[in-house]
Amino acid sequence: MPLLDREEYIEQAYFFRVYRERIAENVPSQEVLRMVREEILATTKLPLAIDFLCGELEHRGRLSPGMGQLAHYFTPFQTFLVEKAEEDKSKFDFRIALQVLEREAGHRAEHTNPAALFVYQFECLARNRLGYDHGLRAVAADPIYGPEWKEWIVRVRKQLGTVDFPDMIYARSEYFLEELRRQERNPDLPAPYPMLFGRQEGRIAKASHGRDPLYMFGALQRQLGYPTVPRPTPARTGPLFDPATELRFQKVETRLMLLEQESKGTVDLSKLASPFATDDPDTQ
């Protein structure tokens, strides 16, 4: 699969964003595809892809099989994300998958840095627990990665669990090569293998040794502007309204209930009695 033109990724980002927003409004997916197809730039190939996806959705009820057949247009990682979100027992929200795809397409439209894209894709697998085995296979098949990248991603897939991920990035960085040359006192020492990450990435990775890789991802995003992986919105744990407003609603509800009882002639005044009231005449 060749790399697509910039305008294709721009339209893909728009497509995934509009799709996510409209299904959040309970618009059926088939209707969303039909509507957004008319909005996409006609000079791109995306309208044709949407036509095919619409047919697959009507026949199979899922998008991922259609995306898999359009391997010349959608990357294996894009198909993998949608497939995971469409699984029957999946906890991976389809709207989060669309948001991940939206940001990935937006990043591809503006940047061609494979290091940033790889870290973004890896963090997506880690945060959403999508599985490294099939996930990294899909990542390695992306056309943005050259042979040296593909070879290293396969190595990462095999070494995960035995070697810390930050250490693997550090060992493939320009910063590692600098320190190696300084230790060997040879400024012209050739790299033992291709260096895939820059000096800053190497410094951040080394500083993250022994720590949760999520801290490294955050540092890369803050320091180098790496794309941020979307996260699910946490469920509401506090009250819907502030306490004062909630109390006023309760009073209004009580008054409405009394009016309804009065209209039916079933007013129970005992519910309005003071908790300190007593029948003893000496206390009155």
User: Helical residue percent?
Assistant: 55-70%
Total number of strands: 0
| Average residue pLDDT | 89
> How would you describe the shape?
extended
Per DSSP, the total helix count is 14
* Low-confidence sequence ranges: none
Order of helices and strands: HHHHHHHHHHHHHH
Gap from first CA to last CA: 91 Å
Overview of the molecule:
With 284 residues, the chain is mainly alpha-helical. Helix content is 62%, strand content 0%. It starts with 5 loop residues before the first helix and ends in a 20-residue tail after the last helix.
Write the layout of secondary structure elements.
Blueprint: H1 6-23, H2 29-39, H3 46-60, H4 64-69, H5 76-86, H6 94-110, H7 114-128, H8 132-140, H9 147-159, H10 165-170, H11 174-184, H12 199-207, H13 213-224, H14 243-264
Helix pairs in contact: 1-2, 1-6, 2-3, 5-6, 5-8, 6-7, 7-8, 8-9, 11-12, 12-13
What characteristics describe this protein?
single chain, 284 residues, mainly alpha, 14 helices, extended, Receptor-associated Protein
Summarize the structure.
The protein is 62% helix and 0% strand. With 284 residues, the protein is an all-alpha fold.
